From TrEMBL:
It holds the Pfam family Abhydrolase_1. The keyword rRNA-binding does not apply. It catalyses: L-homoserine + acetyl-CoA = O-acetyl-L-homoserine + CoA. Its main location: cytoplasm. Signal peptide: none annotated. Its EC number is 2.3.1.31. Homodimer. GO terms for cellular component: cytoplasm. InterPro entries: AB_hydrolase_1, AB_hydrolase_fold, HAT_MetX-like. Pathway: Amino-acid biosynthesis; L-methionine biosynthesis via de novo pathway; O-acetyl-L-homoserine from L-homoserine: step 1/1. This is Homoserine O-acetyltransferase. It comes from Pedobacter metabolipauper.
Length: 352
């Protein structure tokens, strides 16, 4: 059983920066059925340009015959604030003007996204999450949630993510925003504004998502006499155009800013003090040749989240491996959850 719905929170929603949205809409999808004990919730947090259909974009990990399946679990994925796919975003109507927000939309942070998720959880009557999982920007959300509401998360799985978005990551995002801002239509107050800039931004982003090896294996020319029309160039154009057909430049602009805002230490003395607040059984997975979220960032999480387990995987696809290497992720996550259950049983026997 699957449900696609939108939750409307009709009260003012206060953002971390003090600004308010008069109301927020949160698009979400659920799969499976919540059991009587309400202890079978798997909550997936999506990455930058994904949507709430986790069974579509994380195939192999989520699906009817996969580790996280609707027959056994109640799976939830909510579209983040600012995103193109149904939640309140820059193309939503601004109640003050009756027109889309565009660049009048307020800046968001990862904490604002999580606060919206928590409102949805309360609306659905969910006070405990068996597994909270996310990769990349999704991992940033999952970590923030596990700090701000530590008692509600039983198991936390962070893939290719970090505690603080790095200067390197911010530089990539700013370069993409610079590309968008060179497109004059971005300031034209039109839904299709900035798409040429977005195409360029996506091309820049791909260089951080993949690796030298990935391009060499998939875009290498089969002949030696070419002087133009290279496969790699066509690929960059194709991927840029593909995103423009399904996303908008304004959401991309604000979501990259939200990613830049990620710092669990803000207002919590330090990053280490913040990570110490995590109570969930935690598994951190890094990708050895991830350019955008280097392995050292996941090693830091594994070392400083109490009791966390750290695993690294190899992928020719770099950062995008968190979406592609689902067989490996299934094995690692499945073993982690089995061991967690066994430890829980042993603890119960000792206290009985």
């Amino acid at each position: 059983m699957s449900t696609t719905a939108t939750y409307t929170y009709n009260k003012p929603f206060k953002l971390e920066n003090g600004k308010k949205l008069r109301k927020v809409e949160i698009a979400y999808q659920t799969y499976g059925k919540l059991n009587a004990k309400k202890d079978n919730v798997i909550w997936a947090c999506h990455a930058l340009t994904a949507n709430a259909d986790v069974l579509d974009w994380w195939k192999g990990l989520f699906g009817n015959n996969d580790l996280f399946n609707p027959e056994e679990h109640f799976i939830i994925c909510a579209n983040v604030l600012g995103s193109h796919y149904g939640s309140t975003n820059p193309l939503s109507i601004n109640p003050a003007t009756g027109l889309p927000y565009y660049l009048a939309f307020p800046d968001l942070t990862i904490r604002d996204m999580v606060a919206a998720h928590q409102l949805l959880a309360a609306h659905l009557g969910i006070s405990s999450i068996k597994v909270l999982i996310g990769g990349s920007l999704g991992g940033q959300q999952a970590l923030e949630w596990s700090i701000s509401d530590a008692k509600s998360i039983e198991n936390l799985i962070l893939v290719a993510s970090n505690a603080v978005h790095s200067p390197w990551g911010i530089a990539f995002n700013e370069s993409q925003r610079l590309a968008i801002s060179t497109d004059r239509t971005f300031y034209a107050q039109l839904p299709e504004g900035g798409l040429k800039g977005l195409k360029t931004a996506r091309s820049i982003a791909l260089l951080s998502y993949r690796t030298y090896e990935a391009y060499s294996s998939t875009q290498l020319e089969s002949v030696n006499d070419k002087t133009g029309s290279f496969r790699a160039a066509s690929y960059q154009n194709y991927q840029g155009e593909k995103l423009c057909k399904r996303f908008n430049a304004y959401s991309y602009w604000y979501l990259t800013k939200a990613m830049d805002s990620h710092n669990v230490g803000r207002g919590r003395n330090s990053v280490l003090d913040a990570l110490a607040l995590v109570k969930a059984n935690t598994l951190v997975i890094g990708i050895e040749n991830d350019v955008l979220f280097p392995l050292s960032e996941q090693e830091f999480l594994g070392k400083n989240i109490p009791g966390a387990e750290f695993k690294s995987i190899s992928s020719a696809y770099g950062h995008d491996g968190f979406l592609i290497e689902t067989d490996t992720l299934t094995r690692i996550i499945g073993n982690f959850l089995k061991e967690t259950i066994n430890k829980k049983i042993i603890k119960l026997h000792k206290t009985a």
